[in-house]
Design brief:
- The protein is mainly β.
- It is 0% helix and 52% strand.
- It contains no helices and eleven strands.
- The strands form two sheets. Strands 2, 4, 5, 6, 9, 10 and 11 form a seven-stranded mixed beta sheet that branches. Strands 1-3-8-7 form a four-stranded antiparallel beta sheet, with no helix packed on it.
- It is globular, with a radius of gyration of 14 Å.
- It starts with a strand and ends with a strand.
């Protein structure tokens, strides 16, 4: 089954860190995996991407305080982690894992990240 599932969201205090994980089914083993986020009342924005070559890109808002990594398991499931540090309330959003395969966009259901004191 073609699917992406996020995990690792939650509540964190400003200045804290979170690691978000995306589990992508084997169909995505040759796909760039992307993390997006959507804050209340704002459009969805691309946060970070990682290609199969492990080349990474980050949005300016998170660059320098975030890392993204990917591994492929024995059964070709792709695990992509997004580590975010020095979180601020502006990072509060629903975070989505997204990738393209067979010419279609696939999205996970999202995971909520709330940064507040």
């Amino acid at each position: 089954q073609v699917q992406l599932v996020e995990s690792g969201g939650g509540w964190v205090q400003p200045g804290g860190s979170l690691r978000l994980s995306c589990t992508a089914s084997a169909e995505f083993k040759m796909s760039t995996i992307n993390w997006w986020r959507q804050a209340p009342g704002k459009p969805r924005e691309l946060v970070a991407s990682i290609q199969t070559t492990n080349k990474t890109t980050f949005a300016p808002a998170v660059e320098g305080r975030s890392t993204i990594s990917r591994i492929a398991t024995k059964n070709s499931v792709v695990l992509v982690d997004l580590q975010m540090n020095d979180l601020t309330p502006q990072d509060t959003a629903v975070y989505y894992c997204m990738a393209v395969v067979y010419g279609n966009d696939y999205w996970g259901p999202g995971t909520q990240v709330t940064v507040s004191s």
